[in-house]
Amino acid sequence: MSADRINLLRTKVFDKSKWMQLPRDVVVGHDAIEQIPAVCEDLALGDSVLIVSGKQTRDVAGKRVEALLAGSYDVTTFTIDGGEPVETIRKAEAASAEAGFVIGVGGGRVIDTAKIAAYNVDRHFISVPTAASHDGIASSRASVPTADGNVSLAAEPPIAVVADTAVIASAPHRLLASGCADIIANCTATLDWELAHRLTGEPVSEYALTLARMTAEILFQNADLIKPHSEESAWIVTKALVSSGVAMSIAGSSRPGSGGEHKFSHALDRLAPGKGLHGEQCGIGAIITMYLHGGDWEAIRDSLRKIGAPTTPAEIGVDDETAVEALLAARKIRPERFTILDMGLTPESARNLVKMLYRE
Ligand SMILES: [Zn+2]
């Protein structure tokens, strides 16, 4: 028995616990869509399914998924028509409540809508991306456009990911390049996470850090292989996006893939809505945050160029002054997430960085 009458000594029990939600089935490759019936059967999720897709993505892949499942399941569909996002989510939610499980077949907007709807009515969600444009295809994170810019939420993580490389390779190359840039941003996001750990004591996960960093590394090494409309490129990028999503699942947050460069991108969503894609903006931001970390920012810029992703705000139609504003506004977005942009950036230094690092 302890002689500690004033309760000064800590009880030495191990009381740490963690809950990680990972996808159970991941099928990536040529004609992977044909495997959907087998995936649904394997997961035994019920006899009725709601298939969410977009106007175009329904033609690209949604109808094929509907036909593949029609014989064995009670199939209903929900097509996103470009209406007000929150209202659309509510409608998708009502439709999901009538089904045993939900499949999202489409790009970012479709996947995010299906993910949130499934989460709100407690249904499992299968992600069938038609483009590899960001790491939301395999993570629980969803982003919703609002009047104040995009809001990132934790929703239903996919129980399965079925990524058909033939479908993904046929999407516009800009989307794939943006997905690559989102992965490259892991380099700076992980540095920001370690910085926050050293400075504020924020806990880090070594596994999540290593996986996120390695994923970005693989993409750096294969930057030469990323070509428009090549199935091999779609394969490399999709696998990397899944692996990034897994790193986030291990961490229990988006921290391994989202640092200052993501806050810069969110700030741009507010200041210059509709200009750049999420991943494109993150890649551009990563050039500055890598420079501030003292790392090889030129390697980031060169890889982005090879892949065909933009490296300057001008390339996405954003002027330098707006980029400066976004760098300064970044710290007000999720202020609890400490990054290198919180370390004394002034309007003058931001202006100098934009001038110096975003030259053609
Ligand atoms: Zn991202």
From TrEMBL:
It is found in: Cytoplasm. Binds 1 zinc ion per subunit. The keyword Lipid metabolism applies. It is an enzyme of class 1 (oxidoreductase). One of its GO terms (molecular function) is metal ion binding. Its main location: cytoplasm. Pfam families: Fe-ADH_2. Pathway: Membrane lipid metabolism; glycerophospholipid metabolism. GO terms for biological process: glycerophospholipid metabolic process; phospholipid biosynthetic process. Keywords: Cytoplasm, Lipid biosynthesis, Lipid metabolism, Metal-binding, NAD, NADP, Oxidoreductase, Phospholipid biosynthesis, Phospholipid metabolism, Zinc. Belongs to the glycerol-1-phosphate dehydrogenase family. This is Glycerol-1-phosphate dehydrogenase [NAD(P)+]. It comes from Methanoculleus palmolei. The lineage of its organism: Archaea, Methanobacteriati, Methanobacteriota, Stenosarchaea group, Methanomicrobia.
